[in-house]
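Target protein
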Amino acid sequence: MYNNKMPEGFEIIHARVKDNAPILIDRLLKSKQGEVVLVLPKNSIIAANLNSLRILAQEAESVGKILSISTENNDIKNFAQTLKMPIYDGKKIQPVPAETIKNYKFLKKPSRKLMDIMPPSYLHNDRQKESSTDELPTFQLPEIPETPEFPEAQMEETPIYEAKIENFYNTADKDNLPVIKPKRYFSYNRTIVTIIVLGSVSFMSAMYLILPKANIKISINKTPLKASIPVAVSKNISSSNLASGIIPGQYFLLNKSGSKTFTVEGESKEVSSKASGYIEIYNAYSAVPQKLLAQTRFETKEGQIFKIQKSVIVPGANVVNGNLTPSSIKAEVVANSAGEEYNIGPSYFTIPGFKGSPKYAGFYAKSTEPMSAGKIEVGKILTSALLENAKNKLRDQLAQELESDTLNMVKDSDLKLIDGASSVKIDEFKSLIPAGSAVDSFTITMKITWQALVFKEKSFIALLNNFIASKHPDAGGFNFDGQISYPKASSADFKKGELFFTFNIDKENILAVGIGDLQKELAGRDENEIRTLIADKKFISGATISFWPFWVNRAPASPNKINIIIDNN
């Protein structure tokens, strides 16, 4: 009912959307022509299971028919091409490769059918005879009419004979019928195996790229050295004289002022002091000098007593025309008692010892400056030792600040300042509170002068390497382990700008071992290349080489993965 007859030898079969493989096989087997064009709608259910197309091709081959496909569905068309099935493009059938044509069974003896149980209609069909020719004739096909469009109701209906075929395939006893299953390209087991294989390959690649490393244990040729190297630093030269052991130096002369407050430690105590000052003692009594002993008392109008601290001789008065002109002498006096009440201003004094005699009126004293320092108080005592200690601390602090400022200013110049290469002089010092006072804290001020001689470390290392090279030409550059420890300067003459010290070397081995450079040289080399390179190193006496993992046959390209171990035994 849907078959359009073509010229002899050809037939066109229009498939409907829901025509599945069993229905199409039945219609294919009913055809009595040797070449069949199967027209599939664009939305044919064959596209849902493309392996049905393979089954159709195999069935056509089993009965000796050439099956061509005509469709607008690209998936069906592409899959048909992978099966090397002829594609009808609307006007003619695309050429079929000769190799494909030779494989079709209507040209040869038919092979065994793929199905043991076939649709009933096939049992009454005659088989196509074998062709007596080796090649198929080329036919020009007329234009195939478009696939008829069926109303939805008609599409739901199925002809009786097709319904019987569907019932035959769908309701038959499945235990008695062989089931043709399409070949599955992607199965669960295949996916798991693929994942395992790819994971193994990736893991092995990562192991190869990440894990490889080389362990190289080397034995060192030791050359001990013990020597004392005299070094002279001079500000008067601009370049080193390595043969004479002299390197250039720089001289600094700086000033700095500062102050600092210190806390007085210890227990609180009562502290008292007597007021003191100076008086002028007058002799208006006679022309004869008068001796006054130490501790002679002088009294104010208010009755306050002050005593001279040393014996004095008051010169005699001058006599002019019978008139006496008083003479005088200056003397220090201290109050008889402690206390602030003795801190008096300029005053008039008499001598109580002359009281009741003519000398009482002839000898007297005057002060022009106030008396001071008289007090009685409780507090912590500022001792002389504490004051001296504070003085030294402030001096060292100012000197350290000058040193740090100087070295920071030239920090990129590699300058070194060793112990004994600097000096400090205190130019000014003042304490607002004298020693012996009772205070909780005190402040001092100071001005210092700091001078120093410095040198560049690279100049010193050059001198040191020159000395070692003169003793051991094969030693190479001397390698210091960490920071260089410099000795104290033996002498320093800042006026001349000269500094002297002695550097002592006591090393078990002075041969240079450049681990970083050696790692770079060995990177990427195989064992033979490594042994050849190590043999040229004078500081290496032997080496043990091992690679890991076992399949690695050369050192990693990264120097960081080459572990060099020094055997000091």
